[in-house]
């Protein structure tokens, strides 16, 4: 199992990069940078590429709606170049709240667009001339929809690699099936190891049956909050604001993927209550309504023995890359947590 860290949405680039440099020396394998509606992920990853030498640099994730497929491919090729082949492209649909609310782009056809974006990116990296005629993207633009002057083009530069790894953040059954079919990796959120197979097992199996063997095994990339010690029980509360935001506030009733996931995990009544409180503006009560059980089983928080047991559960659930977010009071404590985690990894 590879170990990495996921950086927070907000915060100073320089402070975060200094922490990653120290963690790289401690042996982490991956660093993931998110993108929602804060600073963009690409700026920070370019800075990380210059300051690190070994870790893989991952977007966790870039929304497919906010950049054209060709720009996603160009950006990935550029980051792969400046990092000497250390970049991995994490893609996802995000959700209507971000895509429509912040970018003003319709949130439509997530499955079809995801498949086409992946196909176009891989064609760009192979330096093929783009003659792509999908349902959602046509390259070049047909004459009846443009000036008629567009012509087929190929990437000018020669990429470091023509197969940059692509992982997809997916939660719904069809999205997960598509991911298991076409992607190098899968980035689920709020991963509950003991219930993951019940929620996603059939979708993963269906996608794997259509998977090109040349892709190799699916890299299951999972995030988890981390705090190791006999006196870290209070850190569970640190996770609850994020869970309340996603379950309660990331979408309207009936259109919230994270609420749906909590429901599929068996927390339907709790998810309804969190959503009701959050959407009515009672955010503190929504946070208080998040149960310790949900936090504990989607995190790595507790004494060394408990964390070791949780690591075994993650491994048995098929996790191959674990991205942790240390619940630490400072960089020294965060470094210690990661070092202790590496020592606890199952052999």
From TrEMBL:
<dbReference type="InterPro" id="IPR050564">
    <property type="entry name" value="F420-G6PD/mer"/>
</dbReference>
<feature type="domain" description="Luciferase-like">
    <location>
        <begin position="4"/>
        <end position="320"/>
    </location>
</feature>
<dbReference type="InterPro" id="IPR036661">
    <property type="entry name" value="Luciferase-like_sf"/>
</dbReference>
<dbReference type="GO" id="GO:0016491">
    <property type="term" value="F:oxidoreductase activity"/>
</dbReference>
<protein>
    <submittedName>
        <fullName>LLM class F420-dependent oxidoreductase</fullName>
        <ecNumber>1.-.-.-</ecNumber>
    </submittedName>
</protein>
<keyword id="KW-0560">Oxidoreductase</keyword>
<dbReference type="InterPro" id="IPR019951">
    <property type="entry name" value="F420_OxRdatse_Rv3520c_pred"/>
</dbReference>
<dbReference type="InterPro" id="IPR011251">
    <property type="entry name" value="Luciferase-like_dom"/>
</dbReference>
<dbReference type="Pfam" id="PF00296">
    <property type="entry name" value="Bac_luciferase"/>
</dbReference>
């Amino acid at each position: 199992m590879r170990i990495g860290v996921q950086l927070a949405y907000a915060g100073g680039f320089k402070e975060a990069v200094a922490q990653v440099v120290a963690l790289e020396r401690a042996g982490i394998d991956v660093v993931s940078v998110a993108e929602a509606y804060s600073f963009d992920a690409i700026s920070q990853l370019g800075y990380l590429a210059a300051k690190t030498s070994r870790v893989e640099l991952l977007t966790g994730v870039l929304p497919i709606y906010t950049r054209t497929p060709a720009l996603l491919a160009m950006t990935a090729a550029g980051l792969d170049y400046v990092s000497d082949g250390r970049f991995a492209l994490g893609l996802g649909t995000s959700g209507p709240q971000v895509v429509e609310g912040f970018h003003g782009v319709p949130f439509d056809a997530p499955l079809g667009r995801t498949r086409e974006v992946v196909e176009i990116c891989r064609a760009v990296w192979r330096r093929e001339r783009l003659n792509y005629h999908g349902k959602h993207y046509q390259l070049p633009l047909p004459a009846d929809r443009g000036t008629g002057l567009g012509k087929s083009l190929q990437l000018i530069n020669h990429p470091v690699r023509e197969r940059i790894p692509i992982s997809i953040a997916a939660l719904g059954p069809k999205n997960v099936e598509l991911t298991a079919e076409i992607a190098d990796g899968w980035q689920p959120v709020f991963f509950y190891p003991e219930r993951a197979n019940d929620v996603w097992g059939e979708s993963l199996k269906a996608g794997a049956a259509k998977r090109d063997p040349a892709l190799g095994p699916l890299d299951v990339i999972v995030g988890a909050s981390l705090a190791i010690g006999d006196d870290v029980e209070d850190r569970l509360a640190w996770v609850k604001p994020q869970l309340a935001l996603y379950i309660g506030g990331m979408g309207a009733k009936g259109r919230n993927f994270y609420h749906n996931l909590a429901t599929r995990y068996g927390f339907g009544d709790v998810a309804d209550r969190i959503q009701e409180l959050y959407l009515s503006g009672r955010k503190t009560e929504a946070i208080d309504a998040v149960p310790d059980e949900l936090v504990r089983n989607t995190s790595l928080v507790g004494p060394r023995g408990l964390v070791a047991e949780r690591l075994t559960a993650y491994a048995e659930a098929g996790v191959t890359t674990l991205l942790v977010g240390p619940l630490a009071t400072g960089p020294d404590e965060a470094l210690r947590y990661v070092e202790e985690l590496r020592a606890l990894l199952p052999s």
